[in-house]
């Protein structure tokens, strides 16, 4: 059992059978009354974010989680399949647990969070930025660069990204997987 003194960002706990992780927290000591801890929690199964307040010294059941690096293999009827490069163990994960499945490429490394006691995958995170090649985009028109005008482009994973007009087919770009937005062009 852990107390509110053990809270930190990323701390994982079990509340009424659901797994929650702390996104942010704040210890509050008002002038009157007892101290308390104000938290913002994310449900690891559903992704729902809620605000919760704990009285100081409140005990919670800590859950041990592990982050492991896996390599993306392929997608089938069962979900997305990944392999641990060290042990060659394979795991299948549903689309809802992956933060940006549209940017997955075969052989790409991801980080999967597991419930350590149950060996249950909780989430799958791609790197913050991925580099992919543009497979299709329309040609930009000269003179349309007075403002930040963008055009749709398809990258090698099949995802659509809005890119600036100077980006052409065959260019490599850096994409922010958290927002799905174009970040910058990568020099060859």
Provide an overview of this structure.
The chain is mainly beta. The protein is built from no helices and 16 strands. The chain has three domains: 2-62, SH3 type barrels (Roll), CATH 2.30.30.30; 65-125, Beta Barrel (OB fold (Dihydrolipoamide Acetyltransferase, E2P)), CATH 2.40.50.140; 129-186, Nucleic acid-binding proteins (OB fold (Dihydrolipoamide Acetyltransferase, E2P), Beta Barrel), CATH 2.40.50.140. The protein starts with a strand and ends with a strand. The model has no long low-confidence stretch (mean pLDDT 90). 0% of the residues lie in helices and 54% in strands. Strand 2 and strand 3 form a beta hairpin. It has a six-stranded antiparallel β-sheet, with no helix packed on it. It has a five-stranded antiparallel β-sheet with strand order 9-8-7-10-11, with no helix packed on it.
């Amino acid at each position: 059992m852990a107390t509110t003194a053990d809270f930190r960002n990323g701390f994982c706990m079990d509340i009424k059978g659901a797994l929650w992780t702390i996104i942010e927290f704040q210890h509050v000591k008002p002038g009157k009354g007892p101290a308390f801890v104000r938290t913002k929690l994310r449900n690891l199964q559903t992704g729902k974010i809620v605000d919760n307040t704990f009285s100081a010294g409140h005990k919670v059941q800590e859950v041990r989680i592990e982050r492991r690096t896996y390599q993306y293999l392929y997608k089938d009827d069962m979900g997305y399949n990944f392999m641990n490069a060290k042990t060659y163990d394979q795991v299948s994960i549903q689309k809802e647990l992956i933060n940006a499945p549209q940017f997955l490429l075969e052989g790409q490394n991801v980080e999967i969070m597991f419930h350590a006691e149950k060996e249950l995958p909780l989430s799958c995170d791609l790197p913050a930025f991925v580099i992919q090649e543009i497979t299709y985009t329309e040609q930009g028109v000269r003179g349309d660069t007075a403002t930040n005008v963008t055009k749709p482009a398809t990258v090698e994973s099949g995802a659509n990204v809005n890119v600036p007009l100077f980006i052409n087919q065959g260019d490599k770009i850096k994409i922010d997987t958290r927002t799905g937005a174009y970040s910058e062009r990568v020099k060859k």
